[in-house]
Amino acid sequence: MQNSSNQTVKNKGIYLLPNLFTTAGLFSGFYAVIASMNANFEAAAIAIFVAMICDGLDGRVARLTNTQSDFGAEYDSMADMVSFGMAPALLAYNWALADLGKVGWLAAFIYCAGAALRLARFNTQVGVADKRYFQGLASPAAAAVIAGSIWLGNQYNLDGKDISWIAGLITATTGLLMVSNFRYHSFKEIDWRGKVNFIAILFVVGVFVVVSVQPALILCIGFYLYAISGPVITIRTVRKLKVAHIVGDGEHEKELDAGEGTKSSTNSADNP
Question: Whole domain around residue 58: which residue ranges?
Fold first, then answer.
């Protein structure tokens, strides 16, 4: 009886290490909200990128240390909603959209609602969807598009109010991309624990060097290209694009996979 009681208490515990990274990401997202309210837009944008790093680490740390839990998954989703849903929406609103009135806050709301729906859909597809791809733009990448744009604009002394309509269009479009059916590479097939050759390490070092030269510009361009890659991948995969391939409940995935399989077999025949 005593062992059973101790086992029950143990199961109710919370793994510390992965949840520390999740808490750090939540703190960064909350700080981004406060900083944007105080018109410290560059610090807010950087805080969102810090939250992205923490979000990328918590899941990998949990898998590497075998400390996954249902609590950690739910906590991570709540933190993501703050860091990649509320924080970018409020940052965009405070930087450029406030003067647009209803149009401004509606654009910010479209982004925020898109992030919530994207996270909810992702949670319901765990273990079912193709791990090689995300269905819709991932919320951290969407947040990076918004944060990168504002960080770059702030560095070049660009007043968000001067481009409020462009900022509103980017914000709303990014929100819609999150709930779209466009497929984005997830890069989850990479074996982070596997061995690589020396050239791969040099490449990683080179990436860090390039990003450090102009972090705002490089990160902004990189995530814009990633956001565009989804429509490109989807259009290339299906021969005849339909509305169901862009919006819907995900039933088109079978057709996409079938089209991709046909394309792969054709390529293998052309290149024996």
Answer: 12-188+198-244
- Locus of tokens 């080179």: 206
Q: How far apart are CA 240 and CA 246, in angstroms?
A: 12
Domain assignment present for 264: no
Count of domains for the chain: 1
Residue 114 belongs to some domain of the structure: yes
- The three-point CA angle 175-181-182 to 5° equals 85
Which one, of 142, 132, 124, 141, lies nearest residue 250 by Cα? 124
Does residue 48 register a pLDDT over 60? yes
pTM of the model: 0.81
pLDDT for position 92: 96
Q: Is residue 229 part of a domain?
A: yes
CATH number, domain of 82, equals 1.20.120.1760
Q: For residue 255, tell me if it sits in a domain.
A: no
> What is the rounded CA–CA span in Å between residue 17 and residue 107?
37
- For the segment 92-135, what is each residue's pLDDT rounded down to a tens digit? 999 999 999 899 999 999 999 999 999 998 888 766 566 777 88
Residue 162 structure tokens: 């001067």
Q: According to DSSP H, which parts of the chain are helical?
A: 2-11, 16-37, 41-64, 70-81, 87-92, 102-124, 139-155, 164-178, 198-213, 215-237, 253-270
Cα–Cα distance measured from residue 67 to residue 88, given in angstroms and rounded to the nearest whole number: 30
